[in-house]
Design goal:
Blueprint (H helix, E strand, L loop, with lengths): L1 E6 L3 H15 L3 E5 L10 H6 L4 E5 L7 E5 L4 E4 L12 E6 L2 E7 L9 H21 L5 E6 L12 H4 L7 H11 L3 E3 L13 E2 L11 E2 L2 E6 H4 L2 E6 L15 E5 L3
Parallel strand pairs: 1-2, 7-8
Antiparallel strand pairs: 1-14, 2-4, 3-4, 5-6, 6-7, 8-12, 9-12, 10-11, 13-14
Helix pairs in contact: 3-5
This protein binds one DNA strand of 15 nucleotides through loops.
Amino acid sequence: MKIASWNVNSLKVRLEHVLDWLREHNPDVLGLQETKTIDENFPLEALKAAGYEHIAYSGQKTYNGVALISKHPIESIVTDLPGLDDPQRRVLIATIKGVRIFNLYVPNGSEVDSDKYQYKLNWLKALTSFTKEELSKHKKLLLMGDFNIAPEDRDVHDPEKWKDQVLVSDKERAALQKLLKLGLVDSFRLFDQEDRSYSWWDYRMLAFRRKAGLRIDLVLLSDALAKECKSSCIDIEPRKLERPSDHAPIFVDLKAS
DNA sequence: ATGGTCGTCTAACGA
């Protein structure tokens, strides 16, 4: 089973890129973040016509918004983290073919020690609590999405410049480590990867051309799924298109499941 | 050099 994740930064603008990418890569499941569309405007028909009959979404106006697009039935949907009273639509958790899938748009955090940064840390705490609970019920568990955290310095094009900045700062990296310690692995690092592998490049300053990116989009796997993982990749091709998302799609290939 | 570029019910704001 092939499972993918992509922060599209507006599904309305990026629909053709998404449809082309689905045709080319044929994943079983694609999780989207930053759809920026209310549920009534979700482009259901175009995605169903592309062979994805099972679709779930949790959208809002202007900001955030997540969706799961699947070839297989989507069961036991959860759209809110317990204990977090949050109107922002950042979470879509569901079971597909026996895999518990978390599709996540982690808060950006704006600036270190801002209110938004504190919200990010609180959000990650609530995520970690719920992940622990879900891991006790589901051996095959996967978290994917825009984590807005670069796990290590090798995930940052210029660690000196980024030191102590949001997306890289110690407290958010520690929060990610705490999540991983529940029994999850960063699937990307199960395999040899090219140096300077990133998933996001700022629109400004010709960042993509300069390879000035960060790897902040992740697929985390429980031990049971890590054993089944055949590959974990970032596809930078869509970032080269006209009017691209600032993020690249990422995906894993799982044996069996 | 504190900018720059996108996307959003075109105006600040968020990323």
